[in-house]
Design a protein that fits this description.
By secondary structure, the protein is mainly beta. It has no helices and 5 strands.
């Protein structure tokens, strides 16, 4: 699957790996499936909080970035 889908952010947890901050994000899709993604800071909106609805960009069924709707 490719493209953008709206998701609900359930959890956001920062994770430091060799001094770089990554984010473990748990999201719920409209079909009620829940997915996890570990994303770099360039792929996560600033101050992302649980309860927000954001757009997830998918490539080959992997979440590659999140952004707030414009």
């Amino acid at each position: 699957m490719f493209g953008d889908q709206e998701v609900l952010v359930l959890e956001v947890a920062p994770l430091s790996v060799h001094g770089l901050v990554y984010y473990d994000v748990k999201m719920a899709f409209r079909d009620r499936s829940v997915h996890d993604a570990r994303l770099g800071p360039e792929a996560v909106p600033e101050n992302l909080q649980p309860g927000e609805r954001v757009m997830a960009t998918l490539a080959a069924n992997m979440i590659v970035s999140l952004r707030r709707p414009e």
